[in-house]
Amino acid sequence: MVDAIVSPLLEMLISFAAEEMQQQAQLVTGVKKEVDKLTSNLRAIEAVLDDAEERLVKDKAVRLWLEQLKYVSNDIEDVLDEWITARRKLQIEGGVDDNALVALHKKKKVCFCFPASCFGFKQEEFGFKQVFLRHDIAVKIKEINEKLDDIAIQKDRFKFLESGSKSSEIPRRVQSASFIDEEEICGRVSEKNELISKLLCESSEHQKGLHIISIVGMGGIGKTALAQLACNNDEVNRKFDKILWVCVSEAFEEFRIARAIVEALDVSSSGLGEFQSLLKTISKSITGKRFFLVLDDVWDGDYMKWEPFYHCLKNGLPESKILVTTRKESVAFMMGSTDIIPVQELAEEECWLLFNRIAFFGRPIEECVKLEKIGRKIAGKCRGLPLTTKAIGSLMRSKKTEEEWQRILSSELWKIEEIEKGVLTPLWLSYNDLPSRVKRCFSYCAVFPKDFNIEKERLITLWMAQGYLGVEQDEETNIIGEEYFNILATRSFFQEFKKDDDNRIIECKMHDIVHDFAQFVSQNECLSTVVSGSEESAAINSLGEKVCHLMLSIHEGAPFPISTCRIKRMRSLLIGGVVFDHSSLDGNILEELFEELTSLRAIEVSKLFYTKSTILEIPTNVKRLVHLRYLNLSHQSIEKLPETLCELYNLQKLDVSDCYGLKELPQGIGKLVNMKHLLDDKTDSLGHMPVGIGRLTSLRTLVEFHVSGGGGVGGSNACRLESLKNLELLHVCGIRRLGNVTDVGEAKRLELDKMKYLSCLRLWFDKEEEDGGRRKEEDDQQLLEALQPPLNLKELLIGLYRGNTVFPGWMMPLTNLRSLTLEKCEKCKQIPPLGKLSSLEKLMIWGLKSVKRVANEFLGIEIIAFPKLKSLTFYWMEEFEEWDYGITGMGSTSIMPCLSYLAIISCPKLKALPDHFHQMTTLKELYILGCAIPGVRFRNGKQEDLISQRANVYSREYDLPQQIKARMRMYSE
Questions:
Q1: Of 118, 591, 640, 703, which is the most buried if we count CB atoms within 10 A?
Q2: CA nearest 652: which of 626, 634, 671, 678?
Q3: Which residues are in the Disease resistance R13L4/SHOC-2-like LRR domain (predicted)?
Q4: Angle at Cα 961 formed by Cα 959 and Cα 966, nearest 5°?
């Protein structure tokens, strides 16, 4: 993992040196000298890191050396970050000219070559400050160089091998074989039966290419054992002419694998010195034969290496099968798998039986009885991993006394000693195969408690804050984060996935063993602890300055652990978690934290919705957190943010969502030119947006832009709606209080349709209550027409609209629109022909109180109405009494042929569903609550239970999805 720290540092140093040359570094010649020395030392260290990480498992001295290197590397990163931030501050603080700031930020990187006069400085004053900064940086780098010198000297003592010259003595993975005693296998009955069934089934006549079956699962889960069972099955042996077993392992070495297949075919490979000659021999040997080839432990996802084998192996008979075992689902897809069999953990009782068979072998019965209780607890720690269970069982076989067993139970089983014995070797192998940056992302996950629901978006944000996703401002860090997350997911480091309506992962968990391993590779950098008593957390005190990333969960009545302030190296402070009470955290404690923990990159003080916030203001010394990239203050009782927050020039994400009392954002917010995400939803007290919002040209997410009274004209501090046109990179945008807009021309000048990256748009036509008067209905209609979005829009919400119909001329051309919500458009009497929206998958109609009838106009005139619609919700429609298309002869497949989810809630006058639902076979979930429908009744008078045979029908509020419950709570407030 250390290589993932050193390599980015070298990039920073090279960039730093280049910029210094541009800035006439000869003013302080010591800077260049120290930077050159630092770069040289780091390059020499980087060259041996591969060998050092190989040896850290067995050599404690190496482990300590790497730990020291990591600390110094963090110090270097801090110093360089401080320098870059200080120069940025010099430029921005004098920038009174809006255009200058916008131009500054539209550069690929924030460069440092602008004349000082652009920002109100005299040239000599700017130059003096530059000299002072260079002198300061030279002193700090010199101090770090002294530390790094010692580390470099120690490096030479270890006699590390440089990359590319590793010793052949490095142990290789133990080669697998196809032989196994079936009695040694516990469980796996269903997986075994499924695999055997697929091997014995005849291939389809229409199937083209090879029949490839992949067994996918994390290391140590039993994939190889399952493949071995298949090879030893009598029916399988009778079916195939040849059964071949090849252990592929980490590197997909084409020549070695081809030779192994040849030898498995009982053909001599002597004299076959070319890869192509081996392939020809394989092709000839399998022609006219039905073969079964097992490729065990495939890691490499390079199709170019697999392709020659794929074409060669097609010469066997059509009934031939290839079985692949892999930890990577991506490998299974790459190889063209016809079937994928995922392998999960053993059940608790199966795990115990396996442990019992090994650990209690040959023991007297009375001894077994005495140790069973402890043994079950130890087996429980294995959490269903066969490899780990066998390793621990073998360890316990040598332990004779109850005291020895208890000591093992109470110890950390996954520390160094156990890793050396091979307990976590599969995880270690999988980890070493990760790209270096992904290694850091994985180890960071140890900051969460075990069995924690990890939100993917939150995790990616935390990775971003630490700089794990790269530093290029042109790149979308969320895309890189998604890629890294998917790598870890397909390697089985994550499990228990929760997905959204689009089948995208939104949450996951880590297996306890994987969590222990993450804790090991992070070398105690990450800590999650619960404070439940009156005393300070022992975990915090014991680890001290080793902790870089801390999650605190504080029980009700427990004090905030003030010792946290002593952890100077801390880079993440996440206050919250499974259980949390904010009563012990206030502004005074925050002030002390901000004063001491100046290396922080990420802070969360997010309150759970059912706890009381005691944070009423944010201390002004928040400006000391110059490295901060992510600040989460959601659900707090704050009314305003300090102006000093605008000195956090590296801040990329600010979350103030659900801060209902927040009345204003800082006026200097335009200085936060690196801001990418401003999450300010449910900040109803915000009266306006400060002028500086229009300067944040890196913004990707602006959840709510609040239009001030008079459209922003009335106050010089308020940002005009049309200023949003500068935010060309916006992906998500919401605009509130459109009812305050008095000039439709301002909406036209916004030119929403030119925002080519905009994928989600939310428009609310509410108005400040104290502003008096109501708008005309036609005003809202004209305003909605003026707010034309780009054609690539995927998600649209229109709320609190006062027109008679929500049907702007630009809606039907939105052929990419997938989600549409119409919310509290109370004067709308007719729902537009939304059936024409060819890509629409999700439609939510909430609070349209004037709609009485949904008729054929709703469908449009297309051959297939709503061709892709999967989810439809009607909620709080007080006058909705008839749902009838009045169309005969139209087959059920012509209306909503893909619908799987239907919710009709709080529609008290609706008595029946349209007849086409009677024949619908795709419907899986039906929610009917607060309606006049007796059971499931259709317009033809039939009370049909056919639909209930195909779908789950719910009629209790308890059964409603969380999304609908949340919406109901919001409307009831």
A1: 703
A2: 678
A3: 600-902
A4: 115
Q: Which two tokens stand for residue 549?
A: 């990333």
Residue 357 CB-density burial (10 A; 0-12 exposed, 13-18 middle, 19+ buried):
middle
Tell me if 936 sits within 8 A of 926, measured CB to CB: yes
Backbone angles phi, psi at 534, to 5 degrees: -85, -10
Whole-number Å distance between alpha carbons of 379 and 381: 5
**To the nearest 10°, the Cα dihedral for 884, 889, 892, 893?**
-130
718-737 burial string, b = 16+ CB within 10 Å, else e? bbbbbbbbbbebbbbbbbbb
One-letter amino acid of 525: E
**Amino acid, res. 338:** T
Triad 393, 396, 398: Cα angle to 5° = 125
Instruction: Give the tens place of pLDDT for each residue, 459-491.
Output: 999 999 999 997 555 567 888 999 999 988 877
Per-residue pLDDT band at 647 (split at 50, 70, 90): very high
**Cβ atoms of residues 688 and 659 within 8 Å:** no
Residue-wise pLDDT tens digits, 226-239: 998 899 888 998 89
Length of the chain: 973
β-pairing, 505-509 with 495-499?
antiparallel
Least Cα distance to 206 among 318, 128, 296 occurs for 318
Q: From CA 547, how far away is CA 571, in angstroms rounded?
A: 9
State the helix-helix crossing angle for 386-397 and 402-410, rounded to 10 degrees: 140
> Where is pLDDT greater, at 791 or 970?
791
List the domains of the chain with CATH numbers.
3-158 (no CATH), 182-342 (3.40.50.300), 348-411 (no CATH), 425-446+455-523 (no CATH), 524-655 (3.80.10.10), 819-973 (3.80.10)
pLDDT at site 259: 86
* Entry pTM: 0.77
Local structure of 54: helix, strand or coil: helix
| Angle in degrees, 0-180, between the axes of helices 60-93 and 123-158, rounded to the nearest 10 | 170
Alpha carbons 93 and 99: distance in angstroms, whole number: 14
Backbone angles phi, psi at 694, to 5 degrees: -65, -10
Is the Cβ–Cβ distance between 590 and 619 less than 8 Å? yes
In terms of DSSP H, where are the helices of 522-627? 538-543, 587-596
C-alpha distances (whole Å) from 687 to each of 370, 656, 679, 695, 903 are: 71, 15, 16, 19, 35
Pair of tokens at residue 260:
């192994």
Summarize pLDDT for 757-775 with one digit per residue, the tens. Answer: 999 999 999 987 655 555 5
Please say whether the beta carbons of 9 and 42 come within 8 A.
Answer: yes
Identity of residue 479 = I
With H, G, I as helix, E, B as strand and everything else as coil, classify residue 452: coil
Tens digits of per-residue pLDDT, 15-57? 666 665 555 444 455 677 777 888 888 888 888 887 887 777 6
- The two tokens of residue 134 are 């260079």
CA distance 89 to 106: 17
Which is nearest to 606 in space by CA: 634, 579, 570? 634
Identity of the highest mean pLDDT range in 53-67, 105-119, 602-616: 53-67
